[in-house]
Design goal:
This is Glycogen operon protein. This protein is of the alpha/beta class. It contains 15 helices and 31 strands. It has three domains: 132 residues, Immunoglobulins (Immunoglobulin-like), CATH 2.60.40.10; 389 residues, Alpha-Beta Barrel (TIM Barrel); 101 residues, Immunoglobulin-like (Sandwich). α9 crosses α10. It is elongated, with a radius of gyration of 27 Å.
């Protein structure tokens, strides 16, 4: 790049770097800065070749247009002003800052004392951190042109997936693509997803992130990715050739296979951590605008995330940053929706959670965002942080009450069948009050956070020693059952029971009303050795082991069988709760003798058996589900049909048989069964 350039004031929108003719316009928000410089680097990213003063415009946006300049140029910002942590001000011109709106970066981030505003503590640092900072890179991609599947919620089956962990050990995927975005769109992995019946891939965080310094000091890495450096850039470790368009390519290939892509996004905090954290981007530009601080004590952050800082969505510019990022991933990168980590924060103002918060209203009226899938993790550690059921339409919510109830039932806890019945039919007690239905519940039994499905039936205690926190991290209340031995066993009877228990929970999940979500590896009994907080285990603890036996695993076949059955019954796509008098659907509950459940039956604390039917009067289909979590077999009388006979469709202990069955069935201990029938109606005693 020639050092002879023409400079113009530039325009305030869009924020970030945008190519305009033979030049590039730069715009950055820093309302309290005294001055702001654009720093241009050579192609190696090592030498700062030009430092150019930017110009303040109304509204606190600094701009500069530089020509000639083109895509690929490397840059950063330096903001000068007051450095006064007691006032919540962190301006330090010695620190190179990443553009919050950068679409690409070049180079690696390295932890060092150079990133800190005071070093030693109490002394303003005058050390240049540029050598340890990645550089913002001018890049513009065309709008996404692929055709999106647009599955209805009633037909959606989610697979929560880690980009690296899913394919980095897959022997049939080329080495260069393993653990990359393009590994997920490789035909072999797509074939696996389609075999399972997956319609939607939900990716753990893929926004550019870094590992926390306390992890790198222990030789560990942030594996999950909940430590965002920038909200627009795909994580570079997941790229093959350092080309962000590879993300677009992945999405397009998945869309061709009729699979949607949802991103797990972290708009609640950033990698700049607490007040004593590094100066990387937002803090050095407008700390008080981008982060929530304690009223009258701006030196202290509100830490509703447990990660040191909390993004201030009440600020118009912070809200704009989030909305601009979301639209970018939809319009340019092609994604189909988002799962919001600690989503309660996005709806919290100083008076607490507000379902009509400006963020909720902005998304609801946005012509791009109101058409995509929106999922909330409806809790955080802040005041009033648990808000399951409180989000407005059209939001969906992770339902941890579903998770815990199903776990407790199959763990053989007593007194849970009433709660279980609510969860199996969409949790009307949580969602119906604000005119939402069963499909607003994202049902899951395991996720990235906690035990895997295999570990849920193999461990009763967490085993997180490898995380370096003396096993203090991670949840202790897991509602798990080790089937008699903690961890690995060569006992065939225990191994058989563990497989059966996994099938029991999968059948329960996939035949519940709501939107089912499977976690990575559930289909092949993936184990993390009892680690229920593997966020820092970027190793074989977390990566799927694609052994020969995994390609035709019994759980993979079982999931496929259950989902095929689910698709045959329209009640699982029905967006409303089924109550007495419904013109089309009916739900009935039975005792083991085949009679209707009475009030006293529901209150039998030792009852660990549940039998219920789902009937579609229009199609004349009936589905009978039997769940026996008890330690003893039960002789069960199937409810009588007015015509036709029951056929066994699925069971967690036998291969499928379509033959007609006797009305009296022996239901094995800790087993689940599904029968189907074509019938006018059930005959009730």
């Amino acid at each position: 790049m020639s050092h002879s350039v023409a400079l113009e004031t530039g325009v305030t929108m869009p924020l970030g770097a945008s190519v305009q003719g033979d030049g590039v316009n730069f715009a950055v928000y820093a309302p309290q800065a005294h001055s702001l410089s654009l720093c241009l680097f050579d192609s190696s990213g090592h030498s700062e070749i030009l430092t150019l003063p930017m110009r303040m415009n109304e509204g606190g946006v600094w701009t500069l247009r530089v020509s000639p300049l083109k895509a690929g140029a490397l840059y950063g910002f330096r903001a000068d002003g007051d450095y006064s942590p007691q006032k919540g001000l962190f301006f330090n011109p010695h620190k190179l800052l990443l553009d919050p709106y950068a679409r690409d970066i070049y180079g690696e981030f390295t932890w060092s004392e150079r990133h800190y505003g005071q070093m030693p503590v109490g002394t303003l640092s005058t050390v240049n951190n540029a050598i340890d900072m990645p550089k913002s890179r001018v890049r513009e991609l065309a709008l996404y042109k692929g055709t999106k599947p647009q599955h209805s919620w009633g037909k959606t089956v989610i697979y929560e997936c880690h980009v690296k962990g899913a394919t980095c050990r897959h022997p049939d995927i080329p080495k260069a693509l393993q653990g990359k975005f393009l590994g997920l769109s490789h035909p072999r992995f797509i074939e696996h997803l389609r075999t399972l019946g997956i319609t939607c891939l939900e990716l753990l965080p893929i926004h550019a992130f870094i590992s926390e310094q306390f992890l790198t000091a222990k030789g560990l890495q942030n594996y999950w990715g909940y430590n965002t450096l920038n909200f627009f850039i795909p994580h570079k470790d997941y790229l093959v050739d350092d080309d962000i368009s590879e993300f677009q390519e992945m999405v397009a290939e998945l869309h061709k296979a009729d699979i949607e892509v949802i991103l797990d996004v972290v708009y609640n905090h950033t990698a700049e951590a607490g007040t004593d954290g590094p100066l990387l981007s937002l803090r050095g530009l407008d700390n008080l605008g981008y982060y929530r601080t304690v009223a009258d004590k701006p030196q202290y952050y509100i830490n509703d995330t447990g990660c040191g800082n909390t993004l201030n969505i009440d600020s118009p510019r912070a809200l704009q940053l989030v909305l601009d990022s979301l639209r970018y991933w939809v319009e340019v990168m092609g994604v189909d929706g988002f799962r919001f980590d600690l989503a309660t924060i996005l709806g919290r103002n100083p008076n607490g959670f507000n379902h009509a918060h400006a963020f909720m209203q902005a998304v609801n009226q946005d012509p791009v965002l109101n058409k995509v899938k929106l999922i909330a993790e409806p809790w955080d550690i802040g005041p009033g942080g648990y808000q399951l059921g409180a989000f407005p339409a059209p939001w969906r919510e992770w339902n941890d009450k579903y998770r815990d109830t199903v776990r407790r039932f199959w763990k053989q806890e007593q007194g849970v069948i009433g709660e279980l019945a609510k969860r199996l039919h969409g949790s009307f007690d949580l969602f119906e009050h604000n005119l939402r239905g069963p499909l607003n519940s994202i049902n899951f039994i395991t996720s990235h956070d906690g035990f895997t499905l295999a570990d849920l039936v193999s461990y009763e205690q967490k085993h997180n020693e490898a995380n370096g926190e003396q096993n203090r991290d991670g949840h202790s209340a897991n509602h798990s059952f080790n089937c008699g031995v903690e961890g690995y066993t060569s006992d065939q009877a225990i191994s058989k029971l563990r497989l059966q228990q996994q099938k029991n929970m999968l059948l329960t999940l996939l035949l519940s009303k709501g939107v089912p979500m499977l976690s990575l590896g559930s289909e092949m009994a993936h184990s993390q050795g009892g680690n229920n907080n593997a966020y820092c285990q970027n190793n074989r603890t977390s990566w799927l082991a694609w052994k020969e036996s995994q390609f035709n695993h019994p759980l993979t076949r079982f999931i496929d069988d259950v989902l095929r059955l689910r698709k045959q019954f329209s009640i699982f796509q029905h967006p409303f709760f089924v109550h007495d008098g419904d013109p089309r659907y009916a739900v009935a509950w039975f005792t083991e003798s085949g009679t209707d459940m009475q009030q006293d039956d529901w209150h039998q604390s030792d009852r660990q058996f549940l039998m219920y039917s789902l009937t579609d009067k229009h199609t004349k289909q009936a589905l009978l589900i039997i769940l026996n979590a008890g330690s003893l077999p039960i002789t069960c009388q199937l409810p009588r049909l007015s015509s036709g006979q029951w056929s066994l469709a699925l069971t967690s202990i036998h291969s499928v048989s379509t033959a007609n069955v006797d009305t009296e069935q022996q239901i094995a201990a800790m087993s689940s069964w599904v029968f189907t029938a074509d019938s006018e109606d059930l005959s009730h005693d």
